[in-house]
Amino acid sequence: MSLHSGQFHDVVITPDRVLRYPRTAAAAAELPGRAALLVALNTLALGTAVPRPLAELRPAPLGEFHLVLSRVPGAPLDQAGARAAIDVVAGEFARVLRAMSEVDGLDGVPTAAPGRWVEFADGVRAELFPLMDGRGRERAARELAAVLALDHVTTGLVHGDLGGENVLWVDGPELAGIVDWDGAAIGDPAEDVAAIGASYGPELVARVTALLGWRSSAHRIAAYQGTFALQQALSGALDGDDEELADGLAGYRPA
Asked: Based on the domain organization, do 40 and 89 belong to the same domain?
């Protein structure tokens, strides 16, 4: 058994289940929607495991147990492991991404809002530009212009953070499960490919997009990748997380 503490939840992981304890009233209020989303996702044939609620969600005081989920098997794959089996890893990602891209609507899963990147850009300018130096603001302005120039796409299921700790593997390697679907939406599948690239690098992205026939999405993938540091910094600024803010802004102001 292990305990993981985040800003909004404490998470207890046992051999067969995951217990989520909200730390704020806002986090507790969001749990019913999170549970409904996972129930909806478990009706799909994605070819990989997704956590599922194991008990009825009941209101409870903060600090008491709110949500029980099945534990998805496997462990994250590091960059060295991905490079050593790059063809297999690319094939596994392509297999699951293809299944996700075929989901164009599902009750319980929101559709990405048309103005989300405009809202994001406004937040960056208001919250982060004052903290950057001149070169940092120029870089951020270019990155924002690239993502704002994209057409709004809602053609498939998007995880929203498909990389690193959220993708679990077993021997093979086989993509055994995906966790942390809190940001899932019907949107642009290129966003998930961008997240894969951030975790595993451009060579794997090239192989995945070739398998999927998505080479024409390269400019979209690059545009989304260009927002990742700004997303981290803005989240840190809005949540009062100074460490996340500083890490996200590292390339936008003097060391």
From this structure: no
